[in-house]
Amino acid sequence: MADNETLECVTEHERILQEIESTDTACVGPTLRSIYDDQPNAHKRFMEKLDARIRNHDREIEKMCNFHHQGFVDAITELLKVRADAEKLMGQVTDTNRRLQDAGRDVTAQTEEVIRCRIQQRNMATTVEKLQLCIPVLEMYSKLKEQLHSKRYYAALKTMEQLEKVYIPRVSQYRFCQIMAENLPRLREEIKEISMSDLKDFLESIRKHSDKVGETAMRQAQQHRTFNSAVAKQVHTGHYSKPVYSLSGRTHTHISNGLLTHDDAGDEEEADEEVLTAQDLVDFSPVYRCLHIYTVLGDRETFENYYRKQRKKQARLVLQPQANMHETVEGYRRYFNQIVGFFVVEDHILHATRGLVTRAFTDELWNMALSKIIAVLRTHSSYCDDPDLVLELKNLIVICADTLQGYGFPVNRLFDLLFEVRDQYNETLLKKWAVVFREIFESDNYSPIPVETEEEYKLVTSRFPFHDPEIEKQDFPKKLPMSQSVPQIYTQVKEFIYASLKFSESLHRSSTEIDDMLRKSTNLLLTRTLSSCLQNLIKKPHIGLTELVQIIINTTHLEQACKYLEEFITNITNVSPETVHTTRLYGLSTFKDARHAAEGEIYTKLNQKIDEFIQLADYEWSMAESDGRASGYLMDLINFLRSTFQVFTHLPNNNNDHASMSGKVAQTACMSACKHLSTSLMQMLLDTELKQISMGAIQQFNLDVMQCELFASSEPVPGFQGDTLQLAFIDLRQLLDLFMVWDWSTYLADYGQPNSKYLRVNPATALALLEKMKDTNKKNNIFSQFRKNDRDKQKLIETVVKQLRSLVNGMSS
């Protein structure tokens, strides 16, 4: 068994040696490690085996060296021989090379010179060629700088475009061209900024010059209208020549009489003046230049939006009026000049540029402006109380509308606004004429107009259409029935019609429309202003009965003059009053209402005067017997009434209508006065503060009532039938008769019968008066109970009182 192990170990060592010999030395480590991993002392045996193998290889190497040694010696001997020949050859080569170098040194120098010259020649040709490409670029760039310096920006942009597309691409490899190419966008931005700055300056300029442009345009429109009116008149008269009129040149007309007239002033110097246009007043080149620049730069839309935005802002500023614009006509004129100037400029931009502004844009601006203008004029015209200023405003609106209509803007809404302004104008006229009427009424003496001579009579009748055959037959001096205010009022109404007519001028309205406007405004004057002034006049406390009577006379004559006012308007407008739609004047109702108010005021003032006399009454209600004569206050009152009713004889009675009217007023006033007097006397008897009345006071009161009845029966005003006027005192008369006769049995027996003697005596009235007399008897007759007659009378009074109370209670139930 030990032999087997030895044999295996030898075999393994042999394998390892073969592996070491056949493998790379880097892989020997694992192989050697396997030796130490085997049996103990195995490495010693391996070392022995390795030494044996090394000795074996050494022997083989020694054998091989011995075999090749002689060949090696022979090779060394030959090599030594070749070395000597090589050294000799080296010397020869070195000498040949030296001689060759010496011989080619001059050739090399000349060759290098030729090469250098050729290179220089080539470089020069290349340089010339490149310079020929660069010189146009530099020339164009120099041209660009010159154009920028001379502010020829549009040409500069064209030059830039050529540089970028044609010249710079040819020499783009050079640094200076790259610098140029980098500078071109910056130069474009500078041009945009400069052109935009010029545009802003232009916008500021037209904002400042809009006033002047508008003034010029409106003046030309006014001259044109005046010129057309003059030509129309010449055509109407048959003498005219064809006018020479130009919005951009000179404006004048040769008339057949050889004179040269100008539309504005009419003299030759002004006729030769140059008619300025928007182009003359405003330099539009910045807009054109900026538009072209932005178009070339491909940014036209930005420019258009900016321009329109700025113009909208300017439009809002232009349309914003000054706070005190309504105070003077210059404020309105400046406002309209700015608006017209703004839209004249926009119209020029619309037609001079392609698409910078469009018709839709200008229409939008105009519609916005129109709404603002109308709102502003409505507001500011409402503050104006001067009709002359409103008339100037109307003329400015018409000129503004005519001017802008000539530029193609729709102005119908402006003409519609004139109707509102006309109403405002009429309101200011009405306020002005209200003051005029008040001054006329205050200065009137309310007396008939005295006429001393024929000239004075004609002067009055020339101012007022007065015709009275009876007065005309009278000798001078004589008096006309109306007072001074009547012809003054009539004249002022005509002046009002003239003033109202002024507003209708240049409104392009038909005669029928003008006639209608005049009649409506005149109706307002009569029915509102004059009527109000008359009503206020009638209500004034200082206007007495005489003045009221004169006012009735005046209104009668003014009413009769209304038909002449109708004719006056017809003569102005040439519109027949028979036209279907012709408005009628309402003067008849106005003066009738004033007359009725005056009549009512007569009745009121008459009653107030009666009350004043009644307040002077001073009855001694406890008197035993009457004075035997009427009270002094009542006699004064009756005298006053007699004198007052004589005034009514001055009321107009030159025809049946007026006669019946005057009689009716007098009768109504007289009846009203008597009734009021009767009522006041009755209230005096029944006054609750009056506690006691004696029979003597009743007798005195009866004397006063008798005077009243005598006055009524004396026919202070003619026209009453029978004892109609006396019936005003019938209630008092029956009451006093009842107490004077002491006929209570008859009163109580016939009460409620239609034929009763004391039919107008109310039980409550009789009871109130009887109780006052009852209290008097109790107070004054302390010892009456001791006298049989007095006791019987007291019992009778108590019995009558009870019966009257039962009647009163029966009536109330």
UniProtKB/TrEMBL annotation:
Coiled-coil zones: none
Domain Exocyst complex subunit EXOC6/Sec15 C-terminal: 414-772
GO CC term, one of those recorded: plasma membrane
InterPro entries: EXOC6/Sec15, EXOC6/Sec15_C, EXOC6/Sec15_C_dom1, EXOC6_Sec15_N, EXOC6PINT-1/Sec15/Tip20_C_dom2, Intein_C
One family name in Pfam for this protein: EXOC6_Sec15_N
Organism superkingdom: Eukaryota
Example GO biological process: Golgi to plasma membrane transport
Keywords for this protein: Exocytosis, Transport
PROSITE patterns: INTEIN_C_TER
Domain Exocyst complex component EXOC6/Sec15 N-terminal: start-end pairs: 49-218
Entry's family note: Belongs to the SEC15 family.
Function: Component of the exocyst complex involved in the docking of exocytic vesicles with fusion sites on the plasma membrane.
Name of the protein in its database record: Exocyst complex component
Annotated organism of origin: Xiphophorus maculatus
Biological classification of the source: Eukaryota, Metazoa, Chordata, Craniata, Vertebrata
